[in-house]
UniProtKB/TrEMBL annotation:
Taxonomy of the source species: Bacteria, Bacillati, Bacillota, Bacilli, Bacillales
Subunit note: Heteromultimer composed of HisG and HisZ subunits.
Designated gene of the protein: hisG
Compartments, record wording: Cytoplasm
Organism: Saccharibacillus alkalitolerans
Keywords on record: Amino-acid biosynthesis, ATP-binding, Cytoplasm, Glycosyltransferase, Histidine biosynthesis, Nucleotide-binding, Transferase
Family, per entry: Belongs to the ATP phosphoribosyltransferase family. Short subfamily.
Identification of the protein by name: ATP phosphoribosyltransferase
Domain text: Lacks the C-terminal regulatory region which is replaced by HisZ.
Amino acid sequence: MGEVLKVAMPKGRIYKKASQLFREAGIFIPDDVDDSRRLVIPIPEANMEFIMAKPVDVPTYVEYGVADIGIVGKDVLLEENRDVYELLDLGIARCRMSVIALPDWKPGIHLRVATKYPNVATRYFREQGEQVEVIKLNGSIELAPLIGLADRIVDMVETGQTLKDNGLVERESIFGITSRLIANRVSYRMKNNEIQELCDRLEKVMPGAVKS
Ligand SMILES: Nc1ncnc2c1ncn2[C@@H]1O[C@H](COP(=O)(O)OP(=O)(O)OP(=O)(O)O)[C@@H](O)[C@H]1O
Ligand SMILES: O=P(O)(O)OC[C@H]1O[C@H](OP(=O)(O)OP(=O)(O)O)[C@H](O)[C@@H]1O
């Protein structure tokens, strides 16, 4: 058996989909892992150890090598800009990053934009040649235009339900988002066999994979 792979797993909605994908790929994960409050979970049956992280911190653990690989949304990768390898587009947790406003939005100068993704938003509006003030929030971003904190928000849209329920409109989709498998640069060389085997297994069951 090869070396134990340390996997940074995002807690929350991605974990549910990622663990399902791992199971479909024939990787044994005991059922009780899903409901556990433990943060470091050895999975000897799979020769892995899961590190249960806040989604936004996954690239940090992987860059520093305390996790060999990790699973993370493309949104977080683009925001965090960490020095990691992106190995696979897993095709799960699909949504999009969009610019959102009230229906009666007006173009203006010095717009205020609220978002959980200040780097992404700043880059986007700079490329558009628009001068904006970016305000970082940590959740319930849709509140900002409703109560007058910002003219626009940059946030994720999946079903569109949150926008509908709050009377907001999607002005522009900036990029599509799915979860990615990332690796630490050194681990990728030192544990190449283990990582490659995992990639091969996942590739066969990822959404969109051609089943043989
Ligand atoms: N509808 C959606 N809204 C937000 N994120 C989604 C959605 N669908 C898929 N995702 C993906 O899930 C990730 C966020 O997961 P989750 O909502 O569990 O965590 P979080 O809200 O960032 O963290 P926390 O709740 O710990 O603050 C995003 O980075 C994105 O890649
Ligand atoms: O298009 P929808 O299917 O409605 O999904 C999009 C919503 O989901 C996310 O919020 P999340 O549930 O992570 O809550 P938070 O950002 O307020 O923490 C995102 O920030 C949107 O608000």
